[in-house]
């Protein structure tokens, strides 16, 4: 795919860095504090993903960046300029909303041309630019047709075309893949990444699907209830979650969580859970410095649980197999240990039957400990 | 004697054939998933089973009774819609009891039945709470409860998890699986999400353009897809597919895919028997491509990393091999631009006839 | 056996439909037939007149003695040209005003939550009060202002009354349009007014057509206030019809003709905008 001349002209010059920075942005809607002191900075030409459950405030955040919604406190910087008082159109931002902004009463061409008509460009110029973008996004065949004939993926592309034709400095996307079929979502997310790389544009998109965020984001901001909890590269968020929320949110299937107590027993230090204990004497010092009380939560990802038909060590935990779900390339096994239910990922060859006893071996390097009260991470890895 | 038998169903809307020829059976206690992209006819098929659409032709039998002309409420079906038709201002109890009240069931029986269903679905504590404050998964359980309390012969679900966000969907999937076991009714479940179908279906019917391309157990559909479409649709990420030609070269029989060749001399007989022409399509799933930074075998093929999708525990590598693009799943310490070496696991290779689109290996 | 049951059910359904059809269309058919009949046939039961005439229609527009001669008359009846034009003027202007102002109000309520939650509800409440309650005070009010028997009086009144309906109907249509579509245009530098004219209005053309038709019918057929407020100058068609009826007594032919003529504008408007009505309701919602 060739680069759009317009964009490379705008961005390539003199290393104009197009970073987005937010400092202490807060917003209240009616009685609810929707955004609380949101602060982060994107890199230049980065695919920055804001991931969080519905209601976290992601859409409001994007709208504030775009200038469609005024903020209560804080500043928004684009490049190095503070843009709080700039009109949306002055910020040179492109935004793709959840519902594709494609007008059903106009053809594809007219939809993409809309912003250019607002700028009062000549008909010839408009035609040229629209065709250019359409070619890059491979939607030239849609220009003469009306939107009700488009598929979900095609709609998204036309929306993207409309936004890109203005050569924005930053591209904001609000849950762009939400309404697409699962298979198409898979394909489109890679498309988005490819487009981002091709155009060299700083792209910020929001999603509730952590898999999307982790798969294509250069960095992720995990958001919950108006607060940005952690901003890091995907691998870091996955391997070093700062809080319980992040640990649970990132990773599919979700992390298993087990309540336990940290205490001394026979001059050894252990984590005592309902049905089993784990010796943690080697890491006792690291644990002690970070906790606020003895109540902790042990986190282990399904990928890091090894199952066997026989116990392999003294630390093996006995469990009963309750359910197996086949996912094609692997299986999920749900195991019961007393009142706790653990999920493990096993290879497709796993052939144990429901009701049988299995023995769990935990990968100590991949265990997480969270403080029960503060929900902050206490320790990564128990080696 | 299957609980639900669907024979040669066809439905035409104007000049659009939504369902061309669909036949299948659902046994007691079995869950069938109708899986396919939007527009493949799965929802229309479900609606015909429910009685909300009249088939243009074909027959539907529930418990060996032809029900084509029987109105929906008399067919003995339970239906759960995408948006969980639940009365928001009533309590959970009143919602569950509604159908029974309408049938003038005696009060004692109502209470007994509601208690039983509530216990089964884990709604016991919420019985007298209003539905308005409940979370999505609880509302889903109420919707299921309402449809199940009338002892339907079949349960029909139309994409119940499509409006739900990813994390919650994961949880609700597990719950549904558990509920399935408890309730144990013949079920037909419509979805476009192959992961959902794999998890919840005892058997899956993969549909495309109004026809069932393959109907089998999840493991079988995954391991032995019958057609190109099924191969590509099941599995995340999708199976890699390339065209190639079967040719004899220097005494060996190989698949020539221009950018690389695969030696198939050992299986040449079987292939030549079933193929209609030497034009074939090779399929290999991303998870079946072993990756290496070094060339560990003379058969290894070189590729360049173009893009990486990291999924936490593993990553999807978008590779360029010659002119072709391939996806491989694994875990390597590589960056975009690095070179890697891949091999094809012959056991996991799939071969399809290019013309008929049917699997031959 | 089931087959028999089906036939009987089908027959019963058709029978019911025929009854309903006769009930609704019967009188209309009879009116058409009457309006084309000469006085001699007014009492005969045949639907198609033996000697059809157009005089019934023509006579309405000329201020003369209606056919049948003075035998049937109780007083002179005026030509209906003036009332017809009055109604046309008043109804049209009121409708245009109501829909225009109503659209602006509806937009404010829909997009900016103008007036909060109560104001909009309150406006609907005002429509719940029967007109008869304030007809008398209104008349006195108008009389004091020397406003009686003027076009302005009726136009203002009709606009005020039907405004509520316009707001309610149009708000519904505006709500259907995702705000994101307007926000996208805003982001691209469109002035809010440009958005309204270029984006919103084209998308709800059907809704505007529907509300215009609805309100026009209300205005055209309004009787109570027209009766009270108009004296001689701005007599509207409904008032004229009632006067005509009492004037000419048993002139069935003329009355039938008059009744039909009164409905013609609405039929024409409905026919002309029906294309917009349909596109309005199907809207082409993209998935």
Rg of chain A, nearest Å: 25 Å
Work out the helicity level of chain A: 25-40%
Oligomer: heterotrimer
Which stretches of chain A are low in confidence, meaning pLDDT under 50 for 5 or more residues running? 1-15
Radius of gyration of chain B: 25 Å
CATH topology type of the largest domain in chain A: Rossmann fold
Helical region count of chain B? Answer: 9
In CATH, what is the homologous superfamily of the largest domain in chain B? P-loop containing nucleotide triphosphate hydrolases
Name the CATH architecture of the largest domain in chain B: 3-Layer(aba) Sandwich
CATH superfamily of the largest domain in chain A: P-loop containing nucleotide triphosphate hydrolases
- Counting structural domains of chain B, the number is 2
Contiguous helical run count of chain A:
10
* Overall CATH architecture of the largest domain in chain A: 3-Layer(aba) Sandwich
CATH topology description of the largest domain in chain B: Rossmann fold
Biggest sheet of chain B, in brief?
A: 6 strands, mixed
Topology record:
The complex is a heterotrimer of chains A (383), B (361) and C (287).
Chain A: H1 5-12, E1 20-29, E2 32-41, E3 47-51, H2 58-66, E4 73-78, E5 81-82, E6 93-96, H3 108-118, H4 123-136, H5 152-164, E7 170-174, H6 182-199, E8 202-207, H7 210-216, E9 219-224, E10 227-232, H8 234-239, H9 244-249, E11 256-265, E12 268-273, E13 277-279, H10 284-290, E14 295-300, E15 305-308, E16 317-326, E17 331-337, E18 340-346, E19 357-362, E20 367-371, E21 377-380
Parallel strand pairs in A: 3-8, 3-9, 6-7, 7-8
Antiparallel strand pairs in A: 1-2, 1-4, 4-5, 9-10, 11-12, 11-14, 12-13, 14-20, 15-19, 16-17, 16-19, 17-18, 20-21
Chain B: E1 4-13, E2 16-26, E3 31-35, H1 42-50, E4 57-62, E5 65-66, E6 77-80, H2 92-102, H3 107-121, H4 136-148, E7 154-158, H5 166-183, E8 186-191, H6 194-200, E9 203-208, E10 211-216, H7 218-223, H8 228-233, E11 240-249, E12 252-256, E13 261-263, H9 268-274, E14 279-284, E15 291-292, E16 301-310, E17 315-321, E18 324-330, E19 339-342, E20 350-353
Parallel strand pairs in B: 3-8, 3-9, 6-7, 7-8
Antiparallel strand pairs in B: 1-2, 1-4, 4-5, 9-10, 11-12, 11-14, 12-13, 14-20, 15-19, 16-17, 16-19, 17-18
Helix pairs in contact in B: 2-3, 2-4
Chain C: H1 2-35, H2 55-61, H3 81-112, H4 116-126, H5 131-144, H6 151-176, H7 179-187, H8 192-203, H9 205-221, H10 224-229, H11 237-248, H12 252-282
């Amino acid at each position: 795919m060739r680069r759009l001349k317009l964009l490379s002209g705008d961005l390539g010059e003199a290393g104009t860095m197009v970073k987005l920075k937010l400092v202490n942005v807060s917003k209240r809607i009616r009685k609810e504090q929707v955004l609380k002191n949101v602060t982060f900075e994107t890199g230049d030409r980065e695919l920055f993903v804001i991931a969080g459950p519905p209601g976290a405030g992601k859409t409001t955040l994007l709208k504030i960046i775009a200038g469609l919604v005024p903020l209560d406190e804080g500043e928004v910087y684009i490049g190095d300029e503070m843009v709080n008082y700039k009109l949306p159109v002055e910020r040179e931002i492109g935004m793709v909303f959840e519902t594709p902004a494609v007008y059903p009463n106009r053809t594809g061409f007219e939809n993409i041309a809309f912003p250019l008509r607002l700028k009062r460009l000549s008909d010839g110029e408009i035609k040229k630019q629209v065709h250019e973008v359409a070619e890059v996004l491979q939607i030239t065949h849609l220009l003469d047709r009306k939107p009700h004939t488009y598929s979900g993926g095609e709609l998204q592309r036309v929306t993207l075309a409309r936004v890109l034709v203005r050569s924005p400095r930053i591209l904001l996307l609000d849950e762009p893949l939400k309404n697409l079929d699962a298979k198409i979502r898979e394909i489109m997310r890679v498309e988005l990444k490819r487009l981002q790389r091709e155009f060299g544009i700083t792209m910020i998109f929001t999603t509730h699907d952590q898999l999307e965020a982790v798969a294509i984001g250069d960095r992720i901001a995990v958001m919950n209830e108006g607060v940005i909890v952690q901003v890091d590269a995907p691998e870091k968020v996955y391997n070093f979650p700062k809080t319980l929320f992040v640990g649970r949110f990132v990773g599919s299937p979700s992390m298993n969580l087990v309540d336990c107590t940290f205490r001394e027993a026979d001059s050894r230090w252990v984590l005592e859970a309902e049905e089993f204990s784990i010796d943690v004497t080697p890491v006792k010092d690291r644990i002690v410095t970070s906790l606020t009380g003895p109540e902790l939560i042990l986190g282990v990802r399904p990928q890091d649980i090894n199952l066997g038909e026989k116990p392999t060590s003294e630390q093996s935990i006995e469990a009963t197999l309750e359910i197996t779900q086949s996912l094609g390339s692997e299986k999920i096994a749900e195991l019961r240990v007393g009142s706790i239910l653990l999920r493990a990922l096993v290879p497709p060859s796993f052939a144990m039957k429901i009701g049988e006893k299995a023995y769990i071996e935990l990968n100590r390097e991949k265990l997480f400990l969270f403080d029960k009260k503060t929900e902050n991470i206490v320790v990564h890895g128990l080696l | 004697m299957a609980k639900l038998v669907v024979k040669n169903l066809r439905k035409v809307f104007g000049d659009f054939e939504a369902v061309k020829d669909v036949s299948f059976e659902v046994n007691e206690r079995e869950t069938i998933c109708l899986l396919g992209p939007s527009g493949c006819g799965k929802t229309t098929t479900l609606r015909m089973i429910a009685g909300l659409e009249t088939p243009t032709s074909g027959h539907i039998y529930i418990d060996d009774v032809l029900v084509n002309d029987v109105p929906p409420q008399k067919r003995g079906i339970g239906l759960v819609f995408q948006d969980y038709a639940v009365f928001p201002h009533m309590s959970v109890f009143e919602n569950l009891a509604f159908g029974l009240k309408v049938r003038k069931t005696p009060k004692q029986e109502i209470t007994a039945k509601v208690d039983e269903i509530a216990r089964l679905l884990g709604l016991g504590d919420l019985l007298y709470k209003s539905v308005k404050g409940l979370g999505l998964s609880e509302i889903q359980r109420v919707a299921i409860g309402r449809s199940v309390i009338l002892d339907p012969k079949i349960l029909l679900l139309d994409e119940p998890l499509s409006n739900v966000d990813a994390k919650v969907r994961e949880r609700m999937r597990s719950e549904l699986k558990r509920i399935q076991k408890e309730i144990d009714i013949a079920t037909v479940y419509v979805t476009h999400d192959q992961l959902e179908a794999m998890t919840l279906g005892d058997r899956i019917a993969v549909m495309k353009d109004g026809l069932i391309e393959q109907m089998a157990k999840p493991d079988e559909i995954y391991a032995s897809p019958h057609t190109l479409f099924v191969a590509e649709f099941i599995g995340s990420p999708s199976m890699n597919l390339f065209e190639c030609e079967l040719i004899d070269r220097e005494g060996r029989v190989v698949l020539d895919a221009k950018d690389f060749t695969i030696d198939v001399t050992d299986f040449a007989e079987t292939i030549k028997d079933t193929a209609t022409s030497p034009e074939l399509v090779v399929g290999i799933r991303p998870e079946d491509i072993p990756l290496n930074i070094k060339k560990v075998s003379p058969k290894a093929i070189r590729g360049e990393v173009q893009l990486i999708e990291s999924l936490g525990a593993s990553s999807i590598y978008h590779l360029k091999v010659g002119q072709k693009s391939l996806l491989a799943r694994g875990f390597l310490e590589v960056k975009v631009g690095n070179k890697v070496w891949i091999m094809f696991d012959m056991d996991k290779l799939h071969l399809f006839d290019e013309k008929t689109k049917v699997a031959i290996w | 056996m089931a087959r028999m049951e089906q036939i009987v059910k089908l027959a019963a359904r058709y029978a019911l439909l025929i009854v309903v059809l006769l009930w609704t269309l019967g009188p209309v058919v009879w009116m058409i037939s009457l309006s084309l009949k000469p006085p001699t046939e007014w009492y005969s039961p045949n639907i198609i007149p033996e000697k059809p005439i157009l005089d019934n229609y023509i006579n309405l527009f000329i201020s003369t003695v209606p056919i049948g001669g003075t035998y049937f008359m109780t007083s002179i009846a005026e030509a209906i040209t003036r009332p017809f034009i009055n109604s046309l003027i008043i109804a049209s202007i009121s409708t245009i005003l109501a829909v225009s102002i109503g659209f602006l109000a509806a937009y404010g309520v829909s997009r900016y939550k103008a007036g909060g939650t109560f104001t909009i509800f309150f406006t609907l409440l005002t429509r719940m009060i029967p007109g008869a309650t304030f007809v008398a005070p209104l008349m006195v009010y108008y009389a004091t202002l020397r406003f009686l028997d003027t076009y302005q009086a009726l136009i203002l009144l009709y606009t005020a009354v039907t405004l509520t309906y316009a707001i309610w109907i149009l708000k519904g249509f505006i709500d259907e349009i995702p705000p994101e579509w307007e926000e996208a245009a805003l982001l691209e530098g469109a002035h809010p007014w440009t958005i309204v004219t270029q984006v919103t209005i084209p998308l709800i053309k059907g809704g505007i057509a529907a509300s215009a038709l609805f309100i026009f019918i209300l205005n055209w057929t309004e009787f109570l206030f027209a009766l009270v407020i108009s004296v001689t100058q701005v007599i509207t068609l409904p008032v004229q019809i009632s006067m005509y009826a009492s004037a000419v007594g048993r002139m069935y032919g003329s009355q039938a003709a008059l009744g039909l003529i009164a409905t013609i504008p609405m039929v024409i408007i409905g026919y002309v905008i029906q294309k917009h009505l349909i596109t309005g309701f199907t809207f082409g919602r993209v998935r």
